[in-house]
Design a protein that fits this description.
With 306 residues, the chain is α/β, with parallel strands linked by helices. The chain folds into 2 domains: 39 residues; 251 residues, Rossmann fold (3-Layer(aba) Sandwich), CATH 3.40.50.880. The chain is 33% helix and 11% strand. The strands form 2 sheets. Strands 2-1-3-4-8-7 form a 6-stranded mixed sheet, sandwiched between helices. It has a two-stranded parallel ribbon with strand order 5-6. Helix 4 runs parallel beside helix 8. It starts with a helix and ends in a 10-residue tail after the last helix. The relative contact order is 0.13. GO terms for molecular function: glyoxalase III activity; transferase activity. This is Type 1 glutamine amidotransferase domain-containing protein.
């Protein structure tokens, strides 16, 4: 009388074992397929995502990022983190247009761009430093994500870069010029990579303290420009916070400072050092950097002289 119940139990056990076998077989197939298939990496390039993973931790994904959007190489934008002038409460900012105009030029030439700042993370952007023609670019995530997530100096692997570009703005004179790690990054790019150092407007403040391995000032004997103190509002409160004056400091370091009276572009190229006087010079500076890098890439060119 118990035979049908026993038969049903055996049947259930056999069915369960059969179904379990199918499930396990599919799982094994999925794992094997994942391992066997050469899947493309899905990381978004750094200049599109805006985030810079710890660049010192070189891995397959970091290498993949280095190839986009073109084969030109990588440019490091160095920005200031300070939100105020010195020890005051006066607001300070990067120059958004100096980022955008240079980024567009480098991107069009096939270079990838990363962003770094003394503190890492978001850098300040005040409305007064965003012109009407640049407002729409505040929605450009390729740039904005980068400005919200700049790398710290410790995260930067300088061996990956062909050039550095110091961005101007009212905060550029604070925190960047005296930062030893940022100085080391720039000089690694210049001396060991045979790359280019560039700066625009107040960004020139970032290069005044740079020194070659032999102890000589980078700007010594070179034609340099930037935003000069004679163009500042010298009776304004912000100016009283400046820790040093750009033109005076360049000249005290042995550089030859060249400025124009108006607001027209003025770019000085001396070897592998490129500087621009003002906002209007940002595109010219980037174009000059691209030109130098292309010439350096030509067979037989020696980057040691610069």
């Amino acid at each position: 009388m118990h035979t049908p119940r026993v038969i049903r139990s055996i049947a259930v056990l056999m069915l369960s074992a059969w179904l379990g076998g199918i499930s396990n077989a599919h799982a094994a197939h999925d794992i094997a397929g994942y391992v066997a298939v050469d899947r493309p990496l899905t990381d978004t390039p750094a200049e599109r995502a805006g985030t810079v993973e710890p660049i010192a931790q070189t891995n397959v994904r970091a290498s993949a990022r280095g190839s986009a959007p073109g084969s030109g190489g990588r440019i490091l934008f160095i920005l200031a983190s300070s939100k105020v002038h010195g020890t005051s409460t006066l607001p300070a900012s990067i120059s958004f247009g100096e980022v955008v105009n240079a980024w567009d030029t480098f991107h069009a030439a096939g270079y990838s761009v990363d962003f770094a700042s003394p503190d890492g993370g978001a850098v300040p952007i005040l409305d007064r430093y965003v012109s009407e023609d640049m407002e729409a670019r505040l929605q450009d995530d390729r740039i904005m994500n980068g400005l919200r997530n700049t790398a710290t100096p410790a995260q930067v692997d300088p061996s990956r870069y062909r050039a550095v570009y110091y961005v101007g703005g009212s905060n550029a004179i604070y925190g960047v010029p005296e930062h030893p790690v940022l100085q080391n990054i720039a000089m690694h790019v210049y001396e060991r990579n045979g790359g280019v150092i560039s700066a625009v407007c107040h960004g020139t403040a970032g290069i005044v303290n740079l020194k070659l391995a032999n102890g000589q000032n980078l700007v010594a004997g070179k034609r340099i420009t930037g935003f000069p103190e004679e163009h500042e509002e010298q009776d304004a409160a912000y100016f009283k916070e400046f820790p040093f004056l750009i033109r005076k400091t360049v000249e005290s370091r042995g550089g030859s400072f060249h400025v124009l009276a108006g607001d027209q572009p003025n770019t000085q190229v001396d070897g592998r050092v490129v500087t621009g006087q003002n906002y209007a010079s940002a595109t010219q500076v980037a174009e000059a950097v691209v030109d130098i890098l292309r010439k350096l890439a030509e067979p037989g060119r020696d980057a040691a002289n610069g």
